[in-house]
Design goal:
The chain is built from twelve helices and three strands; from the N terminus they run E-E-E-H-H-H-H-H-H-H-H-H-H-H-H. It has about 270 residues and is an all-alpha fold. Strands 1-2-3 form a three-stranded antiparallel sheet. Helix 5 crosses helix 11. The longest helix has 22 residues.
Length: about 270
């Protein structure tokens, strides 16, 4: 019988031998541990190129911006899952991460993709704010005409401005990394009141998506970076839950205050039907 060739699975990431571990072509113990910060390493792993100091600063600012926002649904479900299964820290963390969607965390990816699609449709990129404003105005009008929201626009708490947005834009400017995604996003912030008739803040999740896209990170992974940041926040939520538990109070608040009502049969075409 013919011999089958030996299977090969090439990777430039981690590999182990009897004597050492290599990562991205470097000796893990000698060249990476104690030398490369975690944020820098996360960027490096995703792109397989070592980021500059400026790129690392912007990237880590994004991670900090997305790490924790208090008692959001992702944090609450993590605490409640730990209450139910204290033997499964991984389950509690996974429960919180699975809640990263279109309303929480997923906005980072949605905004980055949206801005990228707009830029991809341009013959030439504007060279000044007036040009970016014209593109942004057309974009917001098109979204309004299609009855679609502009991702990254609006915030349920920070009605007068998300404090993360100007700070991240400032950092990107300081590092020479205020690229076309951030320029378009900033322009949307300037012109949208003309179309919508009201002023909405550019939210932090959206500006993070714009910044990550300007760093050249894969659009398919933008939500992954948001989840990476939130993992640290959820670990913090669990650490606080151990010291100052609130999950049982949340559970009892619902359990002791629920009320029985008559069935509400589903009807096709009805509300949410």
């Amino acid at each position: 019988m013919p011999e089958h060739p030996t299977a090969q699975y090439p990777t430039a990431l981690g590999a182990s031998s009897l004597e050492k571990i290599t990562l991205l072509g470097h000796d893990l113990a000698e060249d990476v541990m104690g030398t490369v910060g975690f944020g820098e390493l996360a960027f490096w792993l995703a792109t397989q190129r070592r980021p500059t100091k400026g790129e690392t600063r912007v990237f880590e600012a994004v991670l900090a911006a997305l790490a924790d926002h208090g008692f959001t649904p992702t944090a609450i479900v993590t605490r409640l899952t730990y209450l139910s299964a204290p033997d499964s820290v991984q389950g509690a963390l996974a429960a919180g991460l699975l809640g990263g969607g279109s309303r929480f965390l997923g906005v980072t990816e949605d905004t980055g993709r949206f801005l990228h699609d707009v830029l991809d449709g341009l013959d030439d990129q504007p060279i000044d704010d007036d040009g970016w404003d014209a593109v942004a105005l057309r974009t917001v009008r098109e979204q309004r005409g299609a009855k679609k929201f502009v991702p990254g626009l609006g915030h349920h708490v920070h009605k007068n401005g998300d404090p993360r947005t100007p700070r991240l834009m400032q950092i990107a400017h300081e590092e020479g990394l205020f690229g076309p995604h951030l320029q378009l996003f900033a322009a949307i912030g300037r012109v949208h009141p003309e179309v919508l008739g009201r002023t909405l803040p550019l939210n932090g999740a959206g500006v993070c998506g714009a910044a990550l896209a300007d760093l050249g990170l894969p659009l398919e992974l933008l939500r992954g970076f948001a989840l990476l940041a939130r993992t640290a926040g959820l670990i913090g939520q669990l650490a606080e839950e151990l010291r100052h538990p609130v999950a049982n109070d949340i559970f009892l608040s619902v359990d002791l205050n629920n009320r029985s009502v008559d069935p509400d049969p589903y009807e096709p075409g009805g509300p949410r039907g």
